[in-house]
Amino acid sequence: MATEHSDPLTLEVVGLIGTVVARYYEEYDHAAAEHSLTGAQARVLGLLSIQPMPMRRIARKLKCEPSNVTGIVDRLESRGLVERRPDPSDRRVKLAAPTEKGRETARQLRDGLNFAREPLADLSVDERTVLRDLLRRMLGDDAGQ
Fold first, then answer.
1. Which helix (H) or strand (E) holds 97?
2. Which residue has the higher pLDDT, 116 or 137?
3. 45 and 105 in contact (C-beta within 8 Å)?
4. What angle do CA 28, 31, 32 make, to 5 degrees?
């Protein structure tokens, strides 16, 4: 008897999610390479273009070690895409923030990602809303932040 975690529908959904993720990262890495960035550097730059944040928060969002994020931010900073600045609410904390060149690069990266945008365009607003809400629910409370 199949458990609820290994029934054919669940296995198909898990496989489809894996395929979507793999295709997304493949396209993201390709778009990043066109800007001489690694996929990780592009993802950090994309996060920072939404909101400057401390290294620990970047690491939590990317599910990696803060020391890895520090190295990524160092490389982005050396290219003039990111700067470190004091957090206005706690001057002991440094925020990583995109420069104008970094914001423009992040915009170009987003504009170059068609994989997710094209299939989503075939879904209605209601369908995209349901999909978003289901994904947030799967990821837990912090997914919408």
1. strand 90-98
2. 137
3. yes
4. 85
Specify the higher pLDDT residue, 136 or 116: 136
The torsion angle over the Cα atoms of residues 85, 91, 95 and 100, rounded to 10 degrees, is -30
135 to 42, 54, 58: CA distances (angstroms)? 23, 26, 20
Residue whose tokens read 């620990």: 56
For the question of whether the overall pTM of this predicted structure is more than 0.85, the answer is no
Alpha-carbon gap, residue 39 to 32, rounded angstroms: 6
Rounded CA separation 84/72 (Å)? 13
Which three-class secondary structure state does DSSP give residue 125? helix
Go through 52-75 and write b for each residue having 16 or more CB atoms within 10 A of its CB, e for each that does not. Answer: bbbbebbbeeeeeeeeebeebbeb
